[in-house]
Amino acid sequence: MMNDRxxxxxxxxPEPSHRAAGILPLMGTVETARPPVRRRRPAGPGDGxxxxxxxxxxxxxxxxxxxxxxxxxxxxxxxxxxxxxxxALANRIHNTGSAVVxxxxxxxxxxxxxxxxxxGLTMAPLG
Length: 127
Known about the structure:
It is built from 3 helices and 5 strands. It has helices at residues 67-77, 83-96, 106-118, and strands at 6-8, 23-25, 55-60, 98-104, 122-123.
């Protein structure tokens, strides 16, 4: 059974273009809410231990490396990092206490971690 009555639209409320001006039907279309969008949470401590997860190489701030020394080591061992990018990372390490300098598969992460450790940088455990 269809109800032919209509209700006026509240003043200031936008009207859908497909409905008659000034009235809304009591029955008919039903609006539904969208399901929530699932977003991947940012990586946190301990992430990267599972199979296929990215492993993060993190350099820690210390009192014995210079900005230039950190930048040079990063530029030498981390792919895609030049001296300027290394300086930016060194600045982040200095200001925040640490920085993720590379993230990817475990085998390469271990290699870069060992190389940076060998260059005298202070490293966080792989994770």
